[in-house]
Structure of Glutamate-1-semialdehyde 2,1-aminomutase:
Amino acid sequence: MPFSLDRSRLLQQRAESLIPGGVDSPVRAFRSVGGDPPFVERAEGAYLFDADGNRYIDYFGSWGPMILGHAAPSVVSAVQAAAAKGTSFGASTAAEADLAALVMQAVPSIERLRFVSSGTEAVMSAIRVARAFTGRNRILKFEGCYHGHSDALLVKAGSGVATLGIPGSAGIPMETTQFTTAIRYNDIGEVKKVFAKHHGEIACIILEPVVGNAGTILPQPGFLEALREICTQEGTLLIFDEVMTGFRVSLGGAQALYGIKPDLTTLGKIIGGGLPVGAFGGRAEIMNLLAPLGPVYQAGTLSGNPLAMAAGITTLQALLDGGDDFYDALAEVTSRIAHGVMDEAKKAGIPLCMAGVGSMFTWFFQSGPVHNFEDAAKSDTQRFGQFHRGMLERGVWLPPSQYEAAFVSAVHGDAEIEATVAAAREVFATL
Ligand SMILES: Cc1ncc(COP(=O)(O)O)c(C=O)c1O
Ligand SMILES: N[C@H](C=O)CCC(=O)O
């Protein structure tokens, strides 16, 4: 059967008449890679199935959460059992503390934690509590890092903002971003300059400790250590946004991998096992400023939702049980996929470089190296788009932007590696 997206196209047209751009999040629209986005009907293991009957190996895993693969039987059973008891109470359940305890077991820098419904909310709330704790307003972030879509954090953001090539967002008053400073990632000299200019004013540095939203960019040796030292000296809080890297790059996230202890951490994605969730946490003396204990207001009708808690508990328990062996196996499969495709690019004479850690990675269409967003933006995005479409037609669904990370799950294996490398070989021959 020749590849067709006829039904998806019709569904997209219908969606466009009802929903702006036909999507509930811009990155889903395939604007930077062209072509029609497939409409998903169901998913199982490492695969997505669309409305036209096409099957795809999934390399974006709902943008990170699906580390156990789609519809993992243990997660589905836990969610079904929780749903049978009621889908939301707006009152506390034991499951919230159960999940909080599992998170803290893996991420010891978190002494107190609160659940919210998205990564955006987690970051927004962490910034508020950091400002309250320090009595300062300014936040320092890095170009190409994405911390959700709250007003103050879209300045020079990655992900869809970078993909669409827009500077931030309309509808945000200048006054709201006046305290946001965005500088180059991996450049400690720039960080020092900002502290010299704004001495005593900076509430927090927030960053993706491994960037995923400009494509994958690794911290250079010493960068995270230097940030920790500066923050400690200056009375500034260090916030690791581990919404993507938490439970992804290692059980304890990037902070465990690189041995750095942030003051606050934001989480999302994997800790909800594919259901809507976010969390922020850190030192008790900071987190205890939250109402009802303290003066920082933060709330949520569906926060700690019982279905999300059930999916999260089951997922984290599997990761804790699997331990280092689980993460080593995942990294090994990822490395075979990532390097297998790199080898094919080399044979085809196509400049391609790769950055990755554990089970997240990006192929940049350039010779590299990529240390910051400016470097990532040198990629041949047109060629990336051609590659993306070619792979999709051959049953491999990559994240539809050069400025996003790909993810591998525990149920990707030999068959998926071979099929992916073979598809890349064919596509490279057409570029
Ligand atoms: C690092 C990071 N922070 C924050 C967010 C925002 O999370 P959400 O989309 O759940 O609001 C995302 C993903 O979107 C992310 O990757
Ligand atoms: N890069 C984003 C999150 O990690 C992609 C998810 C989205 O914005 O829809």
